[in-house]
Amino acid sequence: MSTFEALIAAQDRVEPRDEMPGDYRATLVRQIAQHAHSEIIGMQPEGDWITRAPSLRRKAILLAKVQDEAGHGLYLYAAAETLGVDRDDLLEALHTGRQKYSSIFNYPSLTWADVAAIGWLVDGAAIVNQVPLGRCSYGPYARAMVRICKEESFHQRQGFESLLTMSRGTPAQHAMAQDAVDRWWWPSLMMFGPPDAESPHSARSTAWGIKRFSNDTLRQRFVDLAVPQAEALGLTLPDPDLRWDEERGSWDFGTIDFTELREVVSGNGPCNEVRIGRRVAAHEDGAWVREAAAAYAAKQGTRGAA
Amino acid sequence: MSSSSEVDTGMVLALADDALVASHRLSEWIARAPSIEEDVALANIALDLLGQARLLYALIGDEDELAYRRPAGAFRNAVMLERPNGDFGATIARLLLLAAHQHALYSSLAAADGDLGAIAAKAVKEVSYHRDHARAWTVRLGDGTEESHRRMQDGLDAEWAVWGELAPTQEAVDWATAVITQATLRVPGPVLAVERQEHTADLDELLSTMREVTAVHPGATW
Amino acid sequence: MSDGSLLWEVFVRPRRGLAHTHVGSIHAADAELALRNARDVYTRRGEGVSIWVVPSGAVTASSPDEQDSFFEPAGDKVYRHPTFYEVPDELQL
């Protein structure tokens, strides 16, 4: 048994300088980078509402939340870099479409209530997905996830609180909240990925201790958490097939239209071009600033020992 | 603690409006900054300024009433802060001059007793960091590449020309001058203190963006 | 690197009395910016009272290959631990 196999068998952590199979390394780079890209692209749908937030309190909350997403992207890029890749290359892969980000961010945020629905549902789903990653086999990824989950608990709570306020507000506010939930519910369920039977990398990731629970298990966990929360919000979920299954002790839900997910993942989502276009523009517009910082450091001899 | 009757309402409004309007423009950089680290940094500064505005508004009234339902003509912010963002050099130039001014002003107010003194004492620590952030970038852009030098100088010239509206103290001018010199940039000239100017259509645009949601939901709470 | 930034390892002292602990890494063109970036990224919630940044390339680390020769020899020196010794409980040694 190799050292790597022994570590995995003992559910111990793999650390950056350990020997690891090339596929393990490649899988982690792909997953961590996609996760980091999702945080960075995820700044956009909500970030667009910072200037339009309807109260100064909500504005401060949203500004702090979007800032956290940038921070989380940076934690994750740092974790990916421990695997021997360069952040520049990862950003390049994002910009050219070689690496993906979560397709959820290719849906538009049409109203202020979308910010709340994203917090409640998208961050809620993300937390269900991410908490087990805090125990994944690769140390730097697990540590980043622990930190991120701790910080993200406020993200979901602020979304819930904001939706609750709207749901109990004027009829127009209530309608806006319901409309946002109607639009974000199914995409949130798709965040857990394809059904287990069609999930190409799942078995290997599970064997390697990267994945602790299957897509369908986590999706069910999320539905079971969300249904009573929706009721407390006084909002309905757009699924006529939702019903309590006494035997399973879980909520049954309708069939997910994964054709739509595949469309969105393959780049035909409503906002794919907008999101990447804006990200690339920011990067290109900022090139002169990054060049200036490097030139200044070279002149000053302050670049450190590296 | 001072009661609101002892507070110079006009001065507090000017401080708060400056902070709110500057915060709004900085927050427009989110997801557009030259690096992700700078997204985080500018968001931090925008949050600090928003926090200052909220504390100051609370001294004289209801923050959302003052921010969302006051006519544009009643805003006391300097026109330089409502102008749309230019490139990163222009934003850094504006931040350099705003933070230099705020640092001097909050430092003097921090000596006072009462709520305003306490707010100012907290704000001094925040704007010290903003000032330092702007200094760090002014020096790097000024003494970086030919392009960055040109852009930083352009931004500085444009912002310096209207800085007088904030009536910066001599201390603030001296501090900014030292940074500009260190950055191998040209000090644009003397700063002429002028009265706060008439607002422009830029403030109308800013406020209509800010009020896009509240305008269609009158009387709603959020 | 194409964007001219370097990688820096970040260490944060959570509060006085505790040592600096490694929290992650950060990109910056120079040390002064690295310190500021580390502050903004790793201490947004009051996680620290002091920060160190060190160029990642300046860290010399032991190799996992050396793990056995480095660390196993310490494993059997049980006499370094106080529990190795039989002494009367009541004397509170």
UniProtKB/TrEMBL annotation, chain B:
Gene3D superfamilies per record: 1.20.1260.10
SUPFAM superfamilies registered for this protein in UniProt: Ferritin-like
Any GO BP: phenylacetate catabolic process
GO cellular component: cytosol
Pfam families reported for this sequence: PaaA_PaaC
UniProt protein name: Phenylacetate-CoA oxygenase subunit PaaI
Annotated source species: Nocardioides marmorisolisilvae
Lineage, broadest ranks: Bacteria, Bacillati, Actinomycetota, Actinomycetes, Propionibacteriales
Gene name linked to the record: paaI
TrEMBL record, chain C:
Highest rank taxon of the organism: Bacteria
InterPro entries in alphabetical order: PaaB, PaaB_sf
Pfam family, one: PaaB
The name this protein goes by in its record: 1,2-phenylacetyl-CoA epoxidase subunit B
Species the sequence originates in: Nocardioides marmorisolisilvae
